[in-house]
Design a protein that fits this description.
By secondary structure, the chain is of the alpha/beta class. It contains 29 helices and 24 strands. A 9-stranded mixed beta sheet has the order 1-8-17-18-16-19-20-21-22, sandwiched between helices. The chain has a 7-stranded mixed beta sheet with strand order 3-2-4-5-7-6-12, sandwiched between helices. The protein has a 6-stranded mixed beta sheet with strand order 9-11-10-13-14-15, sandwiched between helices.
């Protein structure tokens, strides 16, 4: 392990030089007075090194203080260490061979066009891409290792680099996939010591493997941003979904911890983080909720590379490059301290930590000047004289904000205080944001700290009130959203109901029914707090059948070519390929702030007919909504094939029912089992999210864009599928007697499998209630 990290550092010692060679062609910006005392007080920094205007190794003729004899003694050409030069040559050769063999990259997409063409306009992207966009713009090198749900960030950066995309430094990012997250952290540390700007992306146990290096990076004041799509730590069971247990395990590392709530905020705060860390030389852990924010597709106002470049503090760039460890710039960094001085030096760092909020404010103001969006360390929304306030961090705070508007409109006086700067915790700023009228607080944590008096955010809030002389304010603490559990408006109302009760639960959970320790608060009913005119859709597909990809295309089409706003979230089971996928889509005339699953859909599409018996799908259909079933049976078989439960729901909700045999359309048009284009056409035809004539025109353009490289035949097949789909949609009238059908819900019983070996017990699940199954007449 040590040998490997030593080799990595050796290979990267000249990365700053290679990265800065492009910068040396830019116009020099005079260094300004700054708070970087460590550089101003170190006379050897930038004085005896052969660096250009922005750091990096200059050509030999520009290195007046370096003789050819010394270059020879060091075994160097003056342009970089031989080991690193050979490493780069080998890597570029491997990349060229990879592309020559026409292999498919993991994340092939048209997203690179968004970056090249964006001029500060709108684009439909997810939280991961928002973070990767900024990280690519401001990184020299990037070290990646895949772990759900952060993998997409590394994949995108790797793809963009392979396609030659130039960042704000006029270069492609040098991307290296390591053998583990521990290796990525070691390489990150080494490249920072070599004077390069480096970034990485991780989550869950992968983040924990980085903790040893994180302590060193923070202690050595190295500028760095680590983007984390926060995920559950595997404890009693494996879980790949989001909460904040991983980032909370890092709160003592010395890194600034900055939380984002939405894809738009991810982009804006990622830029603030990268610029601030350059300036203050304190590393930043920028995190957002895994899956819920990292994979939510929303309409985001892009920040183009030219705008980002105009904000770069070039004097800070030079200072970092000038501090690089190099055989041609020998000096000491990182020492061993004994009992005589270690404590004093640790406490001396307090002065640096105290200035972090001012640096973040400085760059938040500069970013706000070009974007018009400003985020505070703590932000309060609600009634100005609220007595009951909920404190939260992450995407859950967005849901609370929407519920607060609804409750206050009904005559309540409540509010929500959103935490964005978690470390360093600034108690003065928290108290400034809290209304003076507050009497009770409920603090929500998306983490469980086993055996503790309370969770991290709860403890910080309690300590803040005590130290501020506000101990009379009652504080209760709750947990929500663990393991990716959805946090809905109904749950947010339950939190406020508990807070307003005469005897609130001081330690509670919400979102589950805790029949063991009795800590849960009841959720009475769900609220619809979405703006008027918002259309909600649910589409049930099979993992790898193309449903998710088609829905992402639909969202981007609507957001790009219309004035409507769009949001998409895609729910997977742990099997992924071959498992159930549920697409939650929303479209509307105003921005959509709803980081929770669709519970009240205008349109439901069932892409696999067996889901009718397995799942209670029509439960989430609105009155007068539309249900579409992809099936092999026709209208004459509907009475037999649809379960009584679904019949009752459709009749009682006065819904509209449509059938489509997508597989037959696929076979007739030459697409085979690929039904994504068929179902996408059905969606645009029946969902009313945009005029179908325009949707059909855009779909045909998108087909040419997606499949043009595969040949005209593929394009013609998909266009033919669009036209034939319109002809094959069948509407089925809802008979009046369906209202008397049995509304028996779906239940599951354990039934011994007929294939079980003698003497062995094997069980399978079988749906009961309604129909007994498909293809068999009732007994």
């Amino acid at each position: 392990y040590i040998c490997q990290h030593t080799m990595i550092v050796g290979r990267l010692l000249s990365s700053a030089g290679l990265a800065a060679r492009q910068l040396s062609k830019l116009t020099a910006v005079p260094a300004t007075n700054s708070l970087r005392v460590r550089f101003e007080s170190s006379g050897f920094r930038g004085r005896t090194t052969p660096f250009g205007p922005y750091g990096g190794l200059a050509p030999k003729e520009e290195a007046a203080e370096m003789s050819e004899e010394r270059y020879a003694a060091l075994g160097s050409t003056g342009a970089g260490t031989p080991v690193y030069e050979q490493f780069i040559k080998e890597r570029m050769a491997a990349r060229s061979k990879f592309l020559a063999e026409n292999k498919t990259l993991v994340n092939q997409s048209h997203d690179i066009e968004i970056i090249k063409q964006c001029d500060g306009g709108w684009a439909c992207i997810d939280g991961n891409q928002a973070a990767a966009h900024i990280a690519y713009a401001l990184s020299d090198v990037s070290f990646i290792y895949p772990i759900t749900p952060s993998s997409n960030m590394g994949e995108m950066v790797d793809e963009w680099a392979s396609k030659g995309l130039k960042n704000c430094f006029g270069q492609t990012v040098n991307v290296t996939e390591m053998q583990s997250e521990g290796g990525a952290a070691g390489a990150l540390h080494g490249s920072l010591k070599a004077g390069a700007f480096a970034s990485s992306y991780t989550a869950s146990q992968g983040l924990l493997l980085m903790i040893p290096n994180m302590y060193k990076i923070a202690g050595e004041l190295l500028p760095c941003v680590l983007h984390v799509s926060a995920r559950t730590l595997c404890a009693h069971a494996l879980n790949i979904y989001g909460d904040q247990s991983d980032v909370m395990a890092c709160r003592a590392t010395g890194w600034v911890m900055l939380a984002s709530e939405s894809p738009q905020m991810v982009m804006d705060q990622a830029l603030i983080a990268h610029l601030a860390t350059m300036d203050m030389r304190v590393p930043i852990l920028h995190f957002f909720d895994g899956f819920r924010t990292s994979h939510e597709v929303n309409k985001v106002k892009m920040i183009d590379f030219d705008t980002i470049k105009s904000l770069i503090p070039w004097d800070a760039v030079k200072a970092h490059h000038d501090s690089a460890l190099s055989p041609m710039n020998p000096h000491i960094q990182g020492t061993n301290q004994g009992t005589d001085v270690f404590f004093q030096c640790a406490e001396a760092g307090n002065s640096i930590t105290a200035k972090v909020p001012d640096y973040l404010d400085k760059w938040a103001d500069k970013v706000a000047e070009v974007t018009g969006r400003r985020y505070g360390s703590f932000s309060y929304e609600g009634h100005p004289e609220a007595e009951h306030v909920v404190v939260a961090m992450g995407s859950g705070a967005v849901t609370l904000c929407e519920v607060v508007k609804h409750l206050n409109a009904a005559g309540h006086k409540v509010g929500v205080l959103k935490v964005r700067l978690f470390r360093p915790w600034i108690k003065e700023r928290f108290m400034a944001a809290l209304p003076a009228s507050a009497k009770r607080l409920a603090v929500l944590d998306r983490v469980k700290e086993v055996g503790a008096l309370g969770e991290p955010l709860f403890v910080d809030v309690c300590a803040t009130l005590h130290l501020s002389g506000m101990g009379h304010i009652q504080v209760i603490g709750g947990r929500y959203g663990l393991g990716g559990k959805d946090f809905t408006p109904g749950m947010a109302v339950a939190v406020y109901d508990n807070l307003l009760s005469a005897a609130p639960k001081a330690n509670f959970t919400v979102g589950i029914t805790d029949d063991v320790t009795q800590l849960s608060v009841p959720v009475k009913e769900e609220l619809d707090v979405l703006p008027a005119g918002t259309i909600q859709c649910l589409l049930y597909g099979l993992g790898s059948d193309g449903t998710v990809g088609a829905n992402k295309t639909a969202i981007k089409m609507i957001a790009t070519y219309t004035d409507s706003f769009a949001q998409g979230y895609f729910e997977y089971d742990s099997k992924k390929s071959g498992g159930l996928t549920v697409s939650h889509l929303r479209f509307g005339p105003t921005p959509i702030h709803a980081p929770y699953l669709v519970k009240n859909a205008d349109y439901i599409g069932i892409h696999k007919e067996t889901y009718l018996a397995r799942l209670d799908i029509a439960k989430n259909l609105k009155p007068n909504g539309t249900l579409v079933i992809n099936c092999h049976f026709g209208a004459d078989k509907v009475e037999q094939m649809i379960p009584d439960r679904v019949k009752f729901q459709l009749a009682s909700k006065k819904a509209k029912l449509y059938l489509i045999n997508a597989s037959a359309v696929g076979v007739e048009t030459g697409l085979g089992k690929r039904i994504n284009m068929v179902m996408q056409t059905v969606f645009f035809k029946l969902s009313n999210v945009m005029p179908f004539a325009k949707a059909q025109e855009l779909l045909e353009k998108e087909v040419d864009k997606m499949y043009g490289k595969k040949g005209d035949d593929i394009v013609k097949m998909n266009i033919a599928a669009i036209h034939k789909t319109v002809e094959r949609i069948v509407q089925v009238p809802i008979p009046a007697h369906w209202a008397q059908a049995s509304p028996t819900p779906v239940t599951f019983t354990r039934v011994p499998s007929r294939s079980a070996a003698a003497g062995a017990r094997s069980y399978s699940t079988r749906a009961t209630g309604g129909r007994r199954g498909f293809g068999a007449a009732p007994r």
